[in-house]
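A favour, since you know our structure tokens better than I do. What I am after is a single protein written out in full by you. Could you add the entry underneath, on a fresh line?


***
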Amino acid sequence: MSLEIGDSTAPSTALDQLVQRLRDFASVRDWEQFHSPKNLSMALIVEAAELVEHFQWLTEQQSLKLPVDKLGAVEQELADIFIYLVRISDRLGVNLIEAAWRKIEINERKYPVDKVRGKAGKPNDY
């Protein structure tokens, strides 16, 4: 049996609580009308682009050791991305946790350790 986010038979998790808080936040502002999957996915991409801007022109090493102020700004962009992702999944009835576990299993088959260890590429490259 699959439990959906917010299912009353499922134990409450931090993600469930976040989903409800975001529902309430949108509802009291009468924003549900704007929170279609289309609009939310477009907003998510805008926030993802804002995240990328913080890393543009940095070296790999610099990207791993952000100054405190830049790390704070990156944290805000990550939160925005996460919020939009949670809202999209809620609006579509997708259980993100279950979907992530399924996707990891797919990726494990797609990228077998004995063929990809230490290599970066597409599945067809191996």
Summary: The first helix runs from residue 14 to 28. The chain has one domain: 14-111.
